[in-house]
UniProtKB/TrEMBL annotation:
HAMAP family xref list: ISPT
PANTHER family assigned to the protein according to its UniProt record, in alphabetical order: DEHYDRODOLICHYL DIPHOSPHATE SYNTHASE 2 (PTHR10291:SF0), DEHYDRODOLICHYL DIPHOSPHATE SYNTHASE FAMILY MEMBER (PTHR10291)
UniProt name for this protein: Isoprenyl transferase
Membership in a protein family: Belongs to the UPP synthase family.
Record's function text: Catalyzes the condensation of isopentenyl diphosphate (IPP) with allylic pyrophosphates generating different type of terpenoids.
Biological processes annotated in GO: polyprenol biosynthetic process
UniProt binding sites for Mg(2+): D18, E198
Biological source species: Bradyrhizobium amphicarpaeae
Gene Ontology terms, MF aspect: ditrans,polycis-undecaprenyl-diphosphate synthase [(2E,6E)-farnesyl-diphosphate specific] activity; magnesium ion binding
Length: 245
């Protein structure tokens, strides 16, 4: 079977990091412990990703619907995010990782929005990996907000609309979305930029996910034939773009 993409082409992978709570409760631990172990998994995957041909990695850390969780769990997740931003930046810079955060910032607890901006500025020169963390994120809201901005424009291309949705010019479409813990849903993640993403579902709980699991997901991806609605396998760059939507 023909591979969907040359192995030299840097991929965009999205991950729905699911199963922290179940992993913890099955071990008699608090759910918070599961989220802490989830941060360890993030470290492993961020280190492994560039070595496995990933140029952009988008991680789903907190959805707009996650505000419905108990206050204590939301607070714990925000604290973990705060620690991550404070403690990880040096290592990200050292490893050439550019960090950006997608999603709403206006509802985050005091100081987190500023910490995000500082981390983004500090890592802006990174070229080894673009790490995007989705926080207070909803793909449908991102599309809706883009549509509201687009309403003022007289002409619109897919590329221009993509920039409004993603906040970035030239962001590569998502090649592969991985979801851990056996759940098989997209849960409002990357619905525009993942329109042709391949999907990989694994039973592995997020706190256990490691470089080998990432390699297995990529091996499955590279074995698939991507046709983008056509008849022959093609790579994304060869997809003729429509100038108007
Ligand atoms: C899903 O597991 C996971 C989340 C809602 C949060 C993911 C967060 C982290 C991995 C750590 C914090 C992130 C950063 C960037 C510091 P779940 O709790 O829904 O698991 P369950 O379905 O087993 O209950």
């Amino acid at each position: 079977m023909q591979s969907n993409a040359s192995r030299n082409e840097k991929l965009h992978v999205g991950i729905i990091m699911d199963g922290n709570g179940r992993w913890a409760t099955r071990r008699g631990l608090s759910r918070l412990r599961g989220h802490e172990a989830g941060v360890e998994a993030i470290r492993r995957v961020v280190e492994a990703a560039p070595k496995q041909g990933i140029g952009t990695l988008t991680l789903y850390a907190f959805s707009t619907d996650n505000w419905r969780r108990p206050k204590a769990e939301v607070a714990a997740l925000m604290t973990l995010l705060r620690f991550y931003l404070a403690n990880e930046v040096q290592s990200l810079v050292r490893n050439g990782v550019r960090l950006t955060v997608i999603g709403r910032r206006d509802r985050l607890p005091d100081g987190i929005a500023n910490a995000i901006t500082r981390a983004e500025d500090a890592t802006a020169e990174g070229t080894t990996l673009h790490l995007r963390i989705a926080v207070d994120y909803s793909a449908r809201d991102a599309i809706l907000n883009a549509a509201a901005k687009a309403a003022a424009l007289t002409s619109l291309t897919r590329e221009a609309f993509s920039q409004l949705v993603t906040g970035e010019a030239g962001l590569r479409d998502v090649d592969l979305i991985i979801r851990t813990s056996g759940e098989k849903r997209l849960s409002d993640f990357l619905l525009w930029e993942g329109a042709y993403a391949e999907l990989h579902f694994t039973e592995r709980m997020w706190p256990e996910f490691d470089a080998g699991d990432l390699a297995a997901a990529l091996a499955s991806f590279h074995g698939r034939e991507r046709r983008f609605g056509g008849l022959q396998a093609i790579v994304p760059e060869e997809v003729p773009s429509l100038s108007r939507v």
